[in-house]
Amino acid sequence: DEAFSGRDKRPDDLDEAREQARHCKACPLWEPATQTVFGRGPADAPVIFVGEQPGDQEDLAGEPFVGPAGKVFDAALAAAGIDRRQAYVTNAVKHFKFEPRGKRRIHAKPNMGEVKVCRWWLELERELIRPRLIVALGATAAASVLGHSVTIRDTRSRLIDLEEGTKLLVTVHPSYILRLPDAAAKAREQAAFEKDMGMVKEYV
Ligand code: URA
Hints:
Layout: H1 14-21, E1 47-51, H2 56-61, H3 68-80, E2 88-91, E3 98-101, E4 104-107, H4 112-129, E5 133-137, H5 139-146, H6 152-155, E6 159-161, E7 167-171, H7 174-179, H8 183-201
Parallel strand pairs: 1-2, 1-5, 5-7
Antiparallel strand pairs: 3-4, 6-7
This protein binds uracil (URA).
């Protein structure tokens, strides 16, 4: 029901959008989650980073990329000389989806239906910010930005034209690097991620 989804009126600015998104019930993920984790950053940001969905720590803090994946993200930004405060950081899905496992909450991947429903918010963020560059961190983010699924292999590290004046850069999700068991592979992937962030540097 739109009246209960926080989408009864199109917000005019990001503050209004954030406030309305607090009440979003457009998909069932709102209920077990602590809160909506809306995007963070200036309304005139030249770059939007899009992740998949908030994790455990983001759900508790109400801010994107503050947990382990956020540390990998921050390190790559620092290596590329990018100040995170200049960018807008958000997620394709704005509630934490998880499976309870004892006292822990294990990340569960959002399905395409949930991504599609939440895309309303991402499109709004794009329209209100009109960035020069959108960076999709991983395949879920790329699918949400483009409106259809793509592989990282086919799209990575290329500038793809979106709407007037906006380009898309697809790269890996920082959690992918975190999960690599092999130290050499991890170092290699970290370097490749930093190289992609080097492309982003031209836009901030
Ligand atoms: N992973 C994401 O995709 N987004 C976050 O905000 C945190 C972890």
